[in-house]
Design a protein that fits this description.
Helices cover 5% and strands 39% of the residues. It has 186 residues and is mainly beta. It has a single domain, classed as Jelly Rolls, CATH 2.60.120.10. Strand 1 and strand 2 form a beta hairpin.
Length: 186
């Protein structure tokens, strides 16, 4: 059945995934995850945990988040309701793309997914109200390893497309990358 279209980005290992959508007058169907199709595309992940989040208001920014050390997570993310711009930031010291970022628009209509490997920070900005966001992770969440980098870090310089952001205290007060204990190496 399935098959996916894998679109490379400028960051090694970060991909936009377009699933094949099957539709008829009743609606649509697609495989949100198929180990067979992903392995055939060279994406070998053993996902262990699914997460969902809900953001009530347009302009909500969540990130830049990651889990440090042995608790690092690769993530396959998508937007089940509403629309977001999703960001991946290379946090691997020594990488030729260190501190660079890419983004992809993920919506309930386009059903795109964003594959973010270990060693990258992750963030998303809601483009609509009432956003349901879905994550597959290849490692379990670990509170002690949970980290954030400040959304306004000048060394990363993400262009969020707006200055009107709704942020948690955690994200407002996160350290700059240069002041963090981020342990990722290329």
């Amino acid at each position: 059945m399935g098959k996916i279209n894998v679109i490379a980005t400028k960051l090694e290992g970060v991909f936009i995934i377009e699933p094949t959508i099957f539709g008829d007058p009743r609606g649509w169907f697609y495989e949100a995850w198929s180990a067979r199709d992903y392995k055939a595309a060279g994406l070998n992940y053993d996902f262990m945990q699914d997460n969902k989040s809900f953001s009530e208001k347009k302009g909500t920014l969540r990130g830049i988040h990651f889990q440090n050390g042995e608790h690092a997570q690769a993530k396959l993310v998508s937007c089940g309701r509403g629309a977001v711009i999703d960001f991946a930031v290379d946090l691997r010291k020594g990488s030729p793309t260190y501190t660079q970022w890419v983004c992809a628009e993920l919506t309930e209509e386009n059903k795109r997914q964003f594959m973010i490997p270990r060693g990258f920070g992750h963030a998303f900005l809601t483009l609509t109200d009432d956003v349901e966001f879905c994550y597959k992770a290849d490692n379990f969440y670990n509170y002690e390893a949970d980290r954030s980098i400040r959304y306004s870090d000048p060394d990363i310089a993400v262009d969020w497309g707006t200055n009107e952001l709704i942020l948690s205290d955690k994200d407002k007060n996160a350290p700059l990358l240069r002041d963090s204990d981020c342990s990722f190496e290329y």
